Amino acid sequence: MNISASLATFVHMYKIVKPIFFSMDPETAHHRVTGGLRSFSKIWGAKSLLKSLYTVNDSRLEREVFGLKFKNPVGLAAGFDKNAEYIAEMAGMGFGFIEIGTVTPRPQPGNDKPRMFRLVEDEALINRMGFNNQGADVAAGRLKQLKDREQLIIGGNIGKNKMTPNEEAVNDYIYCFNALFDYVDYFVVNVSSPNTPGLRDLQEKEPLKKILNTLQELNNTKAIQRPILLKIAPDLTDSQLDDIVEIVTETQIAGVIATNTTISRANLNSDPTLVEEAGGVSGKPLTRRSTEVIRYLATRSNRSFPIIGVGGIHSAEDAIEKLEAGASLVQVYTGFIYEGPALISKICKGLLK
């Protein structure tokens, strides 16, 4: 059986097993899938099989963005591998880069369960995880032990602990920056999750400038600097997006990730009792808005800084639309869950066409 036929078989298999996973609580399904993938990868030849099925190697896919060379422009968004546990397994899925986190200085359990919900009719998720993670030091320890990164770019998405007051938030970002510095290729400052009370207040101009300027000053003391990006919400107004352009220019950070999940519930068709659950929406309902934000930022900034586009990418066409709107790279998460592991190779092949 050739590779194309094998891939088609695996795609068909995912369609068969997907209803089984979707019958489980989303968080339980996530752990079953990642745990199963880890076990499978330990079988002799399994990693090579996965790479042959899902990895598209072509120099035309390579991108150089904020001084880093990406083997392809499709990344795994933060939230899937919060604690840097599945880097090797996810690399076998064909990703060009993987973003771990969101990581906080101290371990924290996150919000009470259940805290993730599928909106199947909308091909979306609602999550209110609340930065559940094992802490920056644990993530750093795992990254330190990685044996072969195989040209894989790794980003560190950093946030503040729930119990840290906003006026002291900068110290949490400093801690995570220092803990992960030697083990990641770039940083993402997350002030846009809707699931930590008060966090989005840090998107306001002055507190945001304080955090970014402090990290940049710290970055400049290092022998080698790491690109610092800002992850923003899709719910910002045009005036707030203008502020983002100004802040990126003023602080000289490397770029922006657009966007995080949305608090909007507009035009959703799923069960109203699910739609009313608190948290951020990801997936197809975000496709249009995240692209609008990318296009607005790219236009207003005259493409003076790179943008990583994320939000509602379920096909090669979705990814291409974001790249044409002004993104330099893209990331997937919810689309990966709904469409399966073949999504990355489909996007890469779509780009090559």
Describe this structure in words.
The protein is an alpha/beta fold and 353 residues long. It has a single domain, classed as Aldolase class I (TIM Barrel), CATH 3.20.20.70. Helix content is 41%, strand content 16%. The protein contains 13 helices and 13 strands. The strands form three sheets. The chain has an eight-stranded parallel barrel with strand order 3-4-7-8-9-10-12-13, surrounded by five helices. The protein has a three-stranded antiparallel β-sheet with strand order 5-6-11. Strands 1-2 form a two-stranded antiparallel ribbon. A hairpin with a 4-residue loop joins strand 5 and strand 6. Helix 5 runs parallel beside helix 6, helix 7 runs parallel beside helix 8 and helix 10 packs parallel to helix 11. The longest helix has 20 residues. The radius of gyration is 19 Å and the shape is globular.
Please give a quick description of this structure.
The protein is 41% helix and 16% strand. The protein has helices at 3-22, 26-41, 46-54, 87-91, 136-144, 169-180, 205-219, 238-251, 272-275, 287-300, 316-325, 334-339, 342-352; strands at 63-65, 68-70, 74-76, 97-103, 116-119, 124-127, 153-158, 186-190, 228-232, 255-258, 280-283, 307-310, 329-332.
